C-alpha cells in the first residue's frame, strides 16, 4: 500500500514506518523535521489546511516525476504535541485538534479510503489527572468512560469525535489507536529497573506499555483490515510493565475498584482483546525478553 504518514520523525512513528516498510508498504513521511529514515519526506505544518491537502496531492519523491502524483491508499496520522508540560496547554490542544481535522478533511476530499490515527491511553482520565484518580473498573477496555482533565487528553477525545463524524459522513474506515506508553528496545535496560523497584511509578499508565515494534504491527493490522467503519482500539502488550502479580496490583492500587474478570498473573490491565478480535493484533515483544 501507499501510505501518507504524519509524525514519522517521532519515536513511535519511526518504528511504525520501519515495520510498514518491512511489510512492503511505501511510506511518505510528513513532519516538521526529517526522520533520518530512507523514505520520501515532506516538511509540513499540519495545522495549515492548505499545506496538508497540498502535501497529500503533490509529488513526494524524484521517481514521481516519471510516475506522477501518488495515489495514497491510507493515511496514518501520528503527528501531535506529544504530551502536556512541553508548551502551553492551549497550544497543545490547538495543534492536536486542528491538525487532526485538517488531515481527515484532506483525506476525505482526496478520496483516500482509510485513516488510522493516534489516540491515547490518556483519554480515560487517569494518566495526567490532578492527584490520584482510579479507573471505574479493571481491566480497562474501550467502553470505559473518557472524561479527562488535561488539554492533551481532551484533544484526543475531540479527535475521536472528529473521526466519528467524518466516518459517519463518508462511510470510510477510520480507526483510532488508544496507544499506551511507548517503549523502544533500548528503553528496557535503561528504564525498567526503576519500574521494577517502584511499581507505583507505573500506576498512571495502568501498569501497561506498548513496544514500538508491536505498535507498528498494530498499524499494519489496521491497514489490512477493511470494513469496520469507525472503531477505537486499546494498544498494549500482553504483560504488565512491573514484576508483581495482577492480584498484588489490585490489592495495592485498585482497592474498591470493580474487577470485571479473573486475570492472569502478569496480564495487562489495559485490555487489548478488541484489537486481537477485530484486526488480528498479536504482540510478540516483552520487556522480560530484553531484560533476560
TrEMBL record:
Pfam families according to UniProt: Epimerase
Record-linked SUPFAM superfamilies: NAD(P)-binding Rossmann-fold domains (SSF51735)
Organism of derivation: Yoonia litorea
InterPro entries reported for this sequence: Epimerase_deHydtase (IPR001509), NAD(P)-bd_dom_sf (IPR036291)
Chain segments annotated as transmembrane: none
Gene3D superfamilies hit by this protein: NAD(P)-binding Rossmann-like Domain (3.40.50.720)
Domain of life: Bacteria
Protein name as it appears in the record: Nucleoside-diphosphate-sugar epimerase
All residue ranges annotated as the NAD-dependent epimerase/dehydratase domain in the record: 4-193
Amino acid at each position: 500500500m501507499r501510505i501518507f504518514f504524519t509524525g514519522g520523525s517521532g519515536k513511535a512513528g519511526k518504528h511504525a514506518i520501519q515495520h510498514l516498510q518491512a511489510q512492503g508498504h511505501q511510506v511518505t513521511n510528513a513532519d516538521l523535521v526529517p526522520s533520518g529514515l530512507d523514505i520520501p519526506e515532506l516538511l509540513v505544518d499540519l495545522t495549515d489546511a492548505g499545506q496538508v491537502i497540498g502535501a497529500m496531492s503533490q509529488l513526494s519523491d524524484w521517481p514521481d516525476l516519471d510516475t506522477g502524483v501518488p495515489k495514497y491508499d491510507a493515511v496514518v496520522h501520528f503527528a501531535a504535541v506529544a504530551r502536556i508540560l512541553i508548551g502551553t496547554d492551549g497550544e497543545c490542544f490547538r495543534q492536536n485538534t486542528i491538525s487532526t481535522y485538517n488531515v481527515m478533511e484532506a483525506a476525505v476530499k482526496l478520496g483516500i479510503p482509510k485513516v488510522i490515527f493516534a489516540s491515547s491511553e490518556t483519554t480515560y482520565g487517569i494518566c495526567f489527572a490532578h492527584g490520584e484518580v482510579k479507573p471505574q473498573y479493571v481491566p480497562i477496555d474501550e467502553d470505559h468512560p473518557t472524561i479527562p482533565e488535561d488539554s492533551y487528553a481532551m484533544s484526543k477525545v475531540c479527535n475521536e469525535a472528529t473521526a466519528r463524524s467524518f466516518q459517519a459522513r463518508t462511510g470510510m474506515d477510520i480507526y483510532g489507536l488508544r496507544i499506551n506508553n511507548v517503549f523502544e528496545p533500548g528503553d528496557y535496560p535503561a528504564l525498567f529497573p526503576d519500574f521494577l523497584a517502584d511499581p507505583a511509578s507505573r500506576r498512571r499508565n495502568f501498569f501497561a506499555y506498548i513496544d514500538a515494534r508491536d505498535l507498528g504491527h498494530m498499524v499494519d493490522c489496521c491497514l489490512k483490515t477493511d470494513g469496520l467503519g469507525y472503531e477505537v482500539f486499546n494498544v498494549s502488550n500482553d504483560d504488565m510493565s512491573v514484576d508483581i502479580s495482577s492480584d498484588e496490583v489490585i490489592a495495592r492500587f485498585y482497592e474498591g475498584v470493580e474487577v470485571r474478570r479473573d486475570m492472569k498473573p502478569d496480564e495487562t490491565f489495559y485490555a487489548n482483546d478488541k484489537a486481537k478480535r477485530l484486526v488480528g493484533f498479536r504482540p510478540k515483544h516483552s520487556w522480560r525478553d530484553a531484560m533476560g
